[in-house]
Design goal:
With about 180 residues, this protein is mainly α. Helix content is about 60%, strand content about 0%.
Length: about 180
């Protein structure tokens, strides 16, 4: 199986065969494997309805998939792979988001040092245009960033449900698969 080819199907092992221990049957049904692998990805989106319900849980996009992965990784190699991939992506996106927020603050501080903030409230056109451009461009980028995360997460969940492997782009591999000897 080619590890770098995301189009190659990764079918969970049949109940009579376990790739790690050939003489031991897998601990999870293939249908359940695909379902749990899908939940490893899409559970990171649960923070959205929680926010709407007024229950903000910081870092829920990392903690919920982490909990699923920790509870199910021993039962299936397929779930372990997808759980690692989902967590690597969510941790990477969290790190990138922190960097983007810091960058936004730095750009805003530089902006307000170049343009006098009182000009903005007095309606001076140059300052108003510059502030509007800054707000719209940064806001548009953050919206694009969020939609990209949403689409990739749903896409990965769909691939997991179909029994295929998925590799997120721009993901730092914090959790690597165990080395087999």
């Amino acid at each position: 199986m080619n590890e770098s080819d995301p189009d190659e199907p990764l079918v969970p092992p049949k109940p009579d065969r376990n790739p790690i221990e050939p003489n031991v049957a897998p601990k999870m049904d293939p249908e359940d494997e695909r379902l749990v692998a899908m939940f490893c990805h899409v559970s990171s989106l649960l923070w959205l309805p929680l926010i709407i319900l007024g229950i903000p849980i910081p870092f829920a996009n990392v903690f919920i998939p982490l909990l699923i992965w920790l509870l199910q990784r021993e039962k299936s190699v397929f779930v372990d792979r997808h759980g690692r991939e989902a967590l690597n992506f969510q941790i990477s996106m969290l790190l990138y988001s922190v960097v983007l927020i810091i960058l936004g603050v730095v750009v805003a501080v530089v902006f307000f040092n170049v343009f006098d903030i009182s000009d903005l409230f007095e309606g001076r056109q140059t300052t108003v245009y510059a502030f509007t451009w800054l707000a719209l461009s940064y806001g548009s980028f953050l919206l694009f960033w969020g939609v990209t995360q949403l689409v990739l997460t749903i896409w990965a969940g769909a691939w997991a449900q179909r029994g295929r492997k998925f590799r997120y782009p721009l993901t730092i591999r914090f959790l690597r698969p165990p080395q087999t000897h």
